[in-house]
Amino acid sequence: MAVTRENSGTAGVADVRVSPDVEGGGGGAAAGRRFRGKNKKPAWRRAEGAPVSVVRLPVDVSDPAVRARVEKLFCAAWSLKRALQRDARARVEAYGAGSHRRAADAKGWRSELGLTRAGLEHAAYAHLESSGHLTHHLSKALGMHLADEVWAGVDRHLFPDAAGKRAGRPQVGSWWGFTRIPGRARSHSRERKWETFRLAGTLAGHLAAYGSPAMTTAMTTAMTTRTSARTSAQASAQASAQATVVAAAASAADLEGRASELTVADALAMGVGSAVLAQPRRLTAPAGPSGSASSGRRISWWEHTGPLSVVYTSAGAPDLVLAVRLPQGSGRWPYVAHFLNRPHLWHKIDLVRRRKASAPGGWTYEAHLLILDAGYASPATRARRTRAAQLERRAGADGNVSNLAVVSAPAHLPTPPPGPPPPGRPDTATGADTSGDSGTDSGTRVGGEQVAATLLTLTEQETARLAREQRKAKGRARALERSRRATNPGRYHPSARQEARAKRRAGKGLPARQVNLPKGPRIATKAGVAKNAYRTDTLSRGYHQTRARHAQAARGFTEARQDRARRAAAQLIETHGANLVIEDCDLRTWTRLWGAAVARFTPGMLTAALAREATACGGALLRAATTPTAMSQHCLCGSRVTKTLSVRVHHCDQCGLRAPRDLVSAALASCVTLTDPSDPATARVDYTRAAQLIETYTIAGLQEVLSASTASCPPPAPPAGTDHAAATTPVASARRSAGEYGTPTPDETPDPGTTPDRRTRNPDYPDLRDSS
C-alpha cells in the first residue's frame, strides 16, 4: 500500500490519502498499516493571488538547556535531510543510467525507483523509524516537509520550466548552509489543528506580562488629566468644590484599576519614542498548560493567553517552548500589531537560525511567521502611494551598470497643430529654429514643471565606503585562509621562498625548520584536483568565529542595500508615477562582462524594488525588448544616431539634441507602447508622442531638463551603526549592455579600448551627480 500527498492550498497544507500499491514506491509502509483517508470536506485553498507576508520573531535561547535542545533539533533535521539528499542523488543517477527503461515508461521507471514526492516521504519515514534517536527530536510531519524540500530540487532537475530549462542534479548541502526547518501550515478548515511549530499566546497577554512601567505611568497621567478636566467642568456647572474632590478621587481609584488592564489599543495610542514593553534580558518560557476544562477536556496550548511563545510538539520528547521577544518601542508597535493581533491569519511557522559570532553557540534563532495578509504599510507610506497613484504620468527607465535613469512626462500631451512649427520651436524634420531664439528659458520653465528627469548614481561617500568595506572583507578572507593553512599544513606545498630558505639551511648544514604556515598551492593530482577535499579539513574555533563575523557582515550589508533600494524606489515612484517602461536587459550578461561594477551598484536590486513599489501603487513596471526598440540608437525626433558603448553623450545632427544617452533612452522609453504588456517583444516606440514632447517643450527645454536631472533622488545612506560586508573591487565604469539576447547588437559592439573612467575618454561628458 502506498500513500500519496494531496496539496490542500498553495502554502503547504497537505493531506494524505490511501492509493493502490505502486511497485517500488519507496518502502517504509508496513503491511496492514493504517493511514488517514480522503478528506470528507472540501480541502481549504488559499485564493489565487491572495497576499501573504512574513514577520521575523526572535526567540530567546539564553537557557543552556533550551539552547542545547534547539541545537539537537537542528542536528537531527540536518541528518535526515542529508540522508534524503543522498537518496535523491542516487535515485536520479539510477534514473539517468536506465535509458531504455526511461524511454519505454519514464513515469513507471521513476515510480519504481521511488523518485517521486511520495517515495521521498516514505524514505524519510523509513529513516526516522530505523534510526531510533531521530524520533526523540523529529516528528513525522517535519520529516515529510524536509522530504518535500528535497523533492523540490529533484523536480526542477527532472522537469523543465516554462523556458525549457532544467536545474542541475541534486547535491548534498553543507551543515553551515542548513538554516531553516520548515513547519507545517495551520489547518483553516478544522479547529485546533496546527502540527509541528505553532505560535501560542496573545499579544494582549504579552503586553500584560511585559508592559513597560513608563507606559502605565504615561497612560495613567493622560487619563487623569482628561478625567480631571471633565470632572472640573461638571463641578463648575454644579458649583460644588467638594464634588470636584470626591469625583477626582473616585476617578484616580478607577485609573489605578485600569492601569493593570492596558490594551493593545492603548499601546497603539502611545507617542513615538515611548517604551511599550520592558522585557528582561533573559525571557522565561511559560509553563505548559495543565488541568482540565469544565467540559472535562484536557487544557492544551490553545487555551494559553499569556506571553507569545513558539511551541514544538514531538511524540518522543516534552514540548519545546521558545519565548518570543518583541520590539519594545512604540514606533514599531503598529507593525507588531498588524502581524500578531489577528491570530486567525496566522498560517505557518519556520524555525530559522542565523550566524552571529557574539551569540552563545554562534547562532541566533528566529521564528518566521507567515500570515495571510499583505505586509504592514505605515500611514505615511499609504499616503505617499496614494499620491503616486493619482499622478497621470508616463515614465521610462534605463538601467545601467552604474546608474539608473528615469524620465517622465504627463500622460496626456497637447496635439501639435498642423502646419509649420510656431516661432521658437524647432522643426522636428530639420532641427532648424524658426525664430533664432534658443528657447532655453521657456523650455526650462515648462520642462522643469512637467518633465522630470532623475539620474541615480553612487555618491563619492558611498564609493569610499565600498572601498573601505572591501578592504575589511579581504582582511577577513586572508585570516580565514591563514587559519585553514595553519590547521592543515600537510595539505599545502611550501611557497617558493620557503623552499629556497629550506635549501639554503640544508646547504649550510643547519637543521630543517618546521613550516607551520605553508604559503604554496594546495597539494593536488596531475589533473589539478585537490587530493583532499576541502570539506575534510580541520577547522579551528577561531576559524568558525571569523567566518561567523564574515557572514554577519555580509548579511548586514545586503540588508542595508535592500533598504537603500526600497527608499530609492519609493522616491522615484513618488516623483515619476507608478507606470514605467524599462528595457528588458539580461543582467547575467552584465555580470559576466562587468561583475564588479554590477556588484557595486546592484541595478537588478533597484529594478526589482522599483517593480514592487509600482505594483503596490496600482501601476506596473513593463519591460520592452531592445531589438524592436533600439532606444539607445535613436533620437526623440526619430533619427537613428549610432553610438558605441564608449560614447556616453547623445548628439543628434538632425534636431540638435545633446544630452546623456541614458536619459535620452529613458525619455524614449516613456514613449513606448506594448500590444501585449506581458510580452516585451510587442514593444514599439511611439514617435508621434516623442514628436509631441519636442513640440510641447522644445529641444532646448528638453536638453536642459535631461542635462540637469531636475528631479534629484540620491541613494540614501544605510543606517548608522549597521555592520556591512565589503562589496567587490570598486570600478568607476558605466557601460551599456545590448539586451536580453546575450550578445551585443551590431550597433553596440563593445569597444576594446573602453576604459573604466568614462570622463577621461569623454571630456564633454557632464557631471550629472546630484549635489543636493
Helical residue percent? 40-55%
Can you tell me the residue ranges where pLDDT is under 50 for at least 5 consecutive residues?
1-31, 243-260, 421-448, 710-772
Distance between the termini: 72 Å
Give the number of helices.
22
Q: Whole-number average pLDDT?
A: 79
Q: How is the biggest beta sheet arranged?
A: 7 strands, antiparallel
Q: Strand content of the residues, in percent?
A: 5-15%
What Rg, in angstroms, do the CA atoms define?
A: 33 Å
Number of strands: 18
Give me the secondary-structure category.
alpha+beta
Record the SSE blueprint.
Blueprint: E1 2-7, E2 14-19, E3 53-60, H1 64-97, H2 99-104, H3 106-113, H4 117-131, H5 140-158, E4 180-181, E5 197-200, H6 203-210, H7 213-238, H8 241-259, H9 264-268, E6 309-314, E7 317-324, H10 333-340, E8 346-355, E9 363-371, H11 379-390, E10 393-399, E11 403-410, H12 440-450, E12 452-457, H13 460-487, H14 496-507, H15 541-576, E13 579-583, H16 587-601, H17 603-616, E14 620-624, H18 626-629, E15 649-651, E16 658-660, H19 661-669, E17 672-674, E18 683-685, H20 687-697, H21 699-708, H22 758-761
Parallel strand pairs: 10-13, 13-14
Antiparallel strand pairs: 1-2, 3-7, 3-9, 4-8, 5-6, 6-7, 8-9, 10-11, 11-12, 15-16, 17-18
Helix pairs in contact: 1-4, 1-5, 4-5, 7-8, 11-15, 12-21, 13-15, 15-17, 20-21
Can you put this structure into words, describing what you see?
This protein is α+β, with helices and mostly antiparallel strands and 772 residues long. Helices cover 41% and strands 13% of the residues. It contains 22 helices and 18 strands. The protein has helices at residues 64-97, 99-104, 106-113, 117-131, 140-158, 203-210, 213-238, 241-259, 264-268, 333-340, 379-390, 440-450, 460-487, 496-507, 541-576, 587-601, 603-616, 626-629, 661-669, 687-697, 699-708, 758-761, and strands at 2-7, 14-19, 53-60, 180-181, 197-200, 309-314, 317-324, 346-355, 363-371, 393-399, 403-410, 452-457, 579-583, 620-624, 649-651, 658-660, 672-674, 683-685. The strands form five sheets. A seven-stranded antiparallel beta sheet has the order 4-8-9-3-7-6-5. Strands 12-11-10-13-14 form a five-stranded mixed beta sheet, sandwiched between helices. Strands 1-2 form a two-stranded antiparallel sheet. The N and C termini lie far apart (72 Å).
